[in-house]
């Protein structure tokens, strides 16, 4: 009967709107977390330290989008020359940096800091390289990977280990610098896309980017790397939609 169909639709919409309200609550929580981070670093000099060209898009798009226009210097510790495409990838990174309005860009090409899962980056080499930028740029905040490096890539992990040593070894130089690490998650959370808002809302410091379109366009500048599995990453990875950070 017609009135029974009407009741079915009412039942559907009731739960639909309840779900929408729940999602909005979690989004609101992340917005408050974004303000927490903004209070700490907005208007300050920010140094973002990554390992390879395209790290900034694959892992830090929400952060770079939220703080677009801020005084950010991106330090990329290799030019991604594992396949002999280092010079091409440097140009690609320059294009991506322009998309995010990144003020400063440093791309390192050293024999001891070459891209590769089998490349062992020495802590002292990383510290020496980072300190040169710190001394010239004098950042108020340094942001990088956590000890799991999102993907457990040894180059990512080596950066976090070195930055922790830098914080201790050069404490007088960086005493007024805040240190932040990008939170790594488990495999399921990593690939549930925007749905990870249900978990990320618990973070004290988070930023949100609800659409993957920006990341897709930015990743397109890394044309040499934008193969099919990275296209899937842009669609399904929670790092395209949100970043959560911890102080260390």
Please specify the SSE layout and strand pairing.
Blueprint: H1 2-41, E1 45-50, H2 55-66, E2 71-76, H3 86-99, E3 104-107, H4 123-137, E4 141-145, H5 149-152, H6 154-169, E5 178-182, H7 187-190, H8 197-200, E6 205-208, H9 213-221, H10 228-236, H11 238-241, E7 242-247
Parallel strand pairs: 1-2, 1-4, 2-3, 4-5
Antiparallel strand pairs: 5-7, 6-7
Helix pairs in contact: 4-6
Family: Belongs to the PIGL family.
GO biological process, one term: GPI anchor biosynthetic process
Keywords: Membrane, Transmembrane, Transmembrane helix
Outline:
The protein has about 250 residues and is of the alpha/beta class.
Report on the structure:
The protein is α/β, with parallel strands linked by helices. The chain has one domain: Rossmann fold (3-Layer(aba) Sandwich), CATH 3.40.50.10320. The chain is 53% helix and 15% strand. It contains eleven helices and seven strands. It has helices at 2-41, 55-66, 86-99, 123-137, 149-152, 154-169, 187-190, 197-200, 213-221, 228-236, 238-241; strands at residues 45-50, 71-76, 104-107, 141-145, 178-182, 205-208, 242-247. A seven-stranded mixed β-sheet has the order 3-2-1-4-5-7-6, with helices on both faces. α4 (123-137) crosses α6. The longest helix is centred in the N-terminal third of the chain and has 40 residues, at 2-41. The protein is globular, with a radius of gyration of 20 Å. The termini are far apart. The model has no long low-confidence stretch (mean pLDDT 90). One of its GO terms (molecular function) is N-acetylglucosaminylphosphatidylinositol deacetylase activity. Its EC number is 3.5.1.89. One of its GO terms (cellular component) is membrane. This is N-acetylglucosaminylphosphatidylinositol deacetylase. Belongs to the PIGL family.
């Amino acid at each position: 009967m017609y009135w029974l169909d009407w009741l079915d639709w009412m039942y559907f919409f009731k739960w639909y709107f309840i779900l929408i309200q729940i999602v909005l609550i979690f989004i609101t929580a992340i917005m408050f977390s974004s303000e927490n981070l903004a209070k700490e670093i907005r208007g300050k000099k920010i140094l973002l330290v990554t390992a390879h060209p395209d790290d900034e898009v694959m892992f830090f798009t929400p952060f770079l989008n939220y703080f677009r226009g801020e005084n950010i210097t991106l330090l990329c510790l290799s030019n991604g020359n594992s396949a002999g495409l280092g010079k091409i990838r440097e140009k690609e990174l320059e294009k991506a940096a322009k998309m995010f309005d990144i003020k400063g860009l440093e791309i390192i090409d050293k024999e001891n800091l070459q891209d590769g899962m089998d490349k062992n980056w020495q802590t002292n080499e990383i510290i020496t390289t980072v300190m040169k930028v710190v001394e010239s740029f004098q950042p108020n905040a340094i942001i990088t990977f956590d000890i799991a490096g999102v993907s457990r890539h040894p180059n990512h992990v080596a950066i976090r280990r070195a930055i922790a040593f830098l914080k201790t070894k050069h404490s007088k130089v960086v005493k007024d610098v805040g240190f932040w690490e990008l939170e790594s998650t488990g495999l399921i959370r990593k690939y549930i896309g925007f749905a990870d808002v249900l978990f990320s809302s618990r973070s004290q410091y988070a930023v949100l980017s609800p659409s993957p379109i920006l990341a897709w366009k930015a990743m397109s500048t890394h044309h040499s790397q934008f193969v099919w599995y990275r296209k899937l990453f842009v669609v399904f990875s929670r790092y395209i939609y949100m970043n959560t950070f911890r102080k260390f």
